Amino acid sequence: MRKRLRYADLRALGVVTNRATLGNWIRNLGFPSGQLTGPNSRTWGEAEVQAWIAKRPTAPKPTPQTQHRPGRPRKAERDNPYTAST
Q: d(Cα 44, Cα 30) in Å, to the nearest integer?
């Protein structure tokens, strides 16, 4: 008999942390949709979850290179009334 995993089991295994992320993964990232086992219950096969985890990339996503944009110009120190003058 194959083992079925509920949402609480997925959280305990560290696969997912919230239901919204799980829904996004099912729609966008190919996470198995599971099977409805009741009116408000969904379960996933342990083998299909492990297979999905195994095919995920293991390297961290590269940080995008952004150009440094200067912020707004600042007032000179002499024009700032909040700085302590000696």
A: 13
Q: How many angstroms separate the CA atoms of 34 and 40, rounded?
A: 13
Of the candidates 43, 39, 56, the residue with the CA atom closest to the CA atom of residue 10: 43
Q: pLDDT tens across 1-41, in order?
A: 589 999 999 999 999 999 999 999 999 999 999 999 999 99
Burial class of residue 48 (count of CB atoms within 10 Å of its CB; 0-12, 13-18, 19+): middle
Domain ranges of the chain: 4-55
Q: How many CB atoms lie within 10 A of CB 49?
A: 20
Per-residue pLDDT tens digits for 52-85: 999 987 777 788 777 777 777 776 666 666 666 5
